[in-house]
Amino acid sequence: MICKRIIGDKLECIFTSDLHGNIKKYEKLFDFIQQKKPDGVFIGGDILPSAPGRDTNVKYFLKNFLKKKLKMINKSFTDQVRIFMIMGNDDPRACEETLKEMEEKDLLEYMHNSTTEFDDLYVCGYSFIPPTPFRLKDWERYDVSQYVGVGAISPENGTRTVEISEYDKQYKTIEDDLKKLSKRSPPKKPSICFTLLLMKPILIELIWTERW
């Protein structure tokens, strides 16, 4: 993905998502970063292992792989490559604090429900999605109403790795969150907003066709 400035030279950026803790895919990503030396890297969710034995795999992945790779990337360049990251609906929110700790050490920029300046642009990140058929509900929220599609499971049911209030489960909406998030960036400044999108395959195909 190339993010072009409104005025002046272009910003070269990489976007990826749904790596699901796959070491080979991450190795390819970090090799690509080393080759291209981009201005920014956007990792849009579903970053952690989702195979059986998730708890053990996730802890190993975060501590012994991701953290070390991010340190290596930071040491490789004179000017730090900015790495923006959000969690996805398949990522247990219990691991959110670990990503925040990595942010404190300047290894990445954890962007859920946050905004930050990026050159002459503004970056916004958001992880919540509408109800799905999946049981993990850490990153699911009603969209604009309490509507649940056929086959989907309500955010009030399912499982969570971090408990929230019953009020938040029932009444917090993505619409309200995005209204608040949009107010955090200057109104006259161009923004990049990245989030995890789940759509029916036919819609993905149409969007892909439109992009090309």
Structure description:
The chain has about 210 residues and is α/β, with parallel strands linked by helices. It has a single domain, classed as Metallo-dependent phosphatases (Purple Acid Phosphatase, chain A, domain 2). It contains six helices and eight strands; from the N terminus they run E-E-H-E-H-E-H-E-E-E-H-H-E-H. Strands 1-2-3-4-5 form a five-stranded mixed beta sheet, covered by helices on one side. Strands 6-7-8 form a three-stranded mixed beta sheet, with helices on one face. Helix 1 packs parallel to helix 2. The two termini are about 10 Å apart. Mean pLDDT is about 85; it is low at about 1-5 and about 195-210.
Task: Note the beta-strand portion.
Answer: 15-25%
What is the end-to-end distance?
A: 12 Å
**Gyration radius, to the nearest Å?**
18 Å
Please list the strands of the largest sheet in the order they lie side by side. Answer: 1-2-3-4-5
Instruction: Note the run of SSEs as H and E.
Output: EEHEHEHEEEHHEH
| The CATH top-level class label | Alpha Beta
Q: At the third CATH level, what is the topology name?
A: Purple Acid Phosphatase, chain A, domain 2
Largest sheet: 5 strands, mixed
Tell me, rounded to a whole number, the average pLDDT. 83
Rough outline = globular
Helicity level: 25-40%
Q: Work out the oligomeric state of the chains in this entry.
A: single chain
Under CATH, the homologous superfamily reads: Metallo-dependent phosphatases
CATH architecture tag: 4-Layer Sandwich
Number of domains: 1
Q: How would you classify the helix and strand content by structural class?
A: alpha/beta
